[in-house]
Amino acid sequence: MKKINLKINGSEYSLEIDENMRLIDLIRDVVGLTGTKEGCGEGECGACTVIMGGVTVNSCMVLAFQANGKEILTIEGVKGKGNDKLHPIQKAFLEEGAVQCGFCIPGMVLSAKALLDENNTPSREEIREGISGNLCRCTGYNKIVDAIEKAAYYLVKEAEDNEI
Amino acid sequence: MEINKTFQETEVEAVLSLLDQYQDNSKIIAGGTDIIIQLHQGRVNPEVLIDISNLNEIKEIKQIEGRILIGSATTFTSLMKSQVIPKNLWGLIEAASQVGSPQIRNAATIGGNICNGSPAADIVPPLLALNSQLVIANKMTERKVPLETFFIDKGKVDLKNNELLSYIEFENIKENQGLGFTKLGLRKALAISRISVAVFLEMKDGCFNEIRIATGSCGKFAIREKEVEDFMRNKQVTDELIEAGANLYSNIILKRLAGRHGSDYKSEAIKGIFKDGLGKATHLAKKGGV
Question: Which of B171, B195, B227 is the endpoint of a domain?
Fold first, then answer.
């Protein structure tokens, strides 16, 4: 057993973990945040995507001990601590009908967030590249791309409104 | 065997001491994108894991006295965003950008791609074409080996259990030089390369003054194509020369893969991939956008 300290969705955790535990198991089974999904377990599908240290990673391909001292964002934390409203990306996904079975969506939303944090006016091609590590077997991707385009618009508008 | 100790170090020296202490029982983990699957499938079973993904010293790309040094723990994303890499080394950026997916490129490292010894490692052909040297350290000393001699067999490299690959270095590119890379994958993202070719060129008076070519995914590990290089070096660039070079390359691949699955396909495809990579390198060398 090993003791690690990390921050998940803004809350500090001090946890005892097995040395060979993966980050996804820590998030789901130890902390109980089951929004992060495990699909393939080998980095192909992206369902387990979380943001660690500001960048997206597949949480099935990170060992839990490597997250010691790191800051992690999961789907549960996307809307921000103490915020009741959905994040603009989540809102756009619902409005555009981008969610069917929903299994890939937590990972999709986090990949979209990482993309939009860096580039607030991505082209459709850049959006496709941004979510290229997330597989969806339902939607055919078009509605997801539509949703991310709309979310980009919402976020730019939100930033402009905040400036005024 | 179970992992019973893990270390998350921030100093290279501390890692070298740990490697010296645990030797065969230990494994280095960086991005984890290969080793975690190997651990899961029981293909490796170390008692000790040493995480090097927080070694800032070897996570950066530097330019020192006309050479470029890439720290082994640099991620593919960092390489793609680096300001140190000149424009006519685009082949290096193109190879990095075609690895896996954004999530994998954010975690996976250049050193890991090399040390894992996969025949399909995307970053190896461009580094071979650049005549890269590896800086390998142990607790006592440091050695430099050409990347070309580092690969022993599929998945097997010249790295001892107490050693750490710390840097990959090569001569910085000049204005009349260019590095092109072309990969054939079965789909756009998350594709393991079927064949990849990197071409380094130096142009002078309409000639290929220097040419270095490396192939990935056609054999146990990526290799230089010296026969094709010798054939094309110091010759005036013409369509006929390129065609003849591509045919020679194709015959070499056909012989190398004789009797193996996909040899006809790969030996035909190599012609187009080579011409594409060569075209990119020529364009970059002429443009000389340093």
Answer: B171
B151 contacts B49 by C-beta, under 8 angstroms = no
Contact B49 A111 (CB under 8 A): no
Partners of A55 on chain B (C-beta within 8 Å) are 77, 106
Compute the distance between CA of residue A146 and CA of residue A156 in angstroms, rounded to an integer.
16
Distance CA B250, CA A160 (A): 57
**How many contacts (CB atoms, under 8 Å) link A and B?**
83
With tokens 């377990």, the residue in question is: A41
> Are A62 and B36 within 8 A, CB to CB?
yes
Contact A56 B103 (CB under 8 A): yes
Note whether ipTM > 0.90 here. Answer: yes
Last residue of a domain, one of B136, B171, B206: B171
When the pLDDT of each residue in chain B is averaged and rounded to a whole number, the result is: 94
Asked whether the predicted pLDDT for residue B289 surpasses 70, the reply is no
Q: Do A133 and B101 touch (CB under 8 A)?
A: yes
Instruction: At B150, give phi and psi (nearest 5°).
Output: -75, -25
Q: Under CATH, which number does the domain A88-163 receive?
A: 1.10.150.120
Output the pLDDT for position B217.
87
Is the confidence at residue B189, as pLDDT, over 70? no
Determine the Cα–Cα distance for residues A3 and B76; give it in Å rounded to an integer. Answer: 30
> B33 and B60: one domain?
no
Residue B1 has pLDDT above 60, yes or no: no
The CATH label, of 1.10.443.10, 3.40.50.2300, 3.80.10.10, 3.10.20.30, for the domain at A2-77 is 3.10.20.30
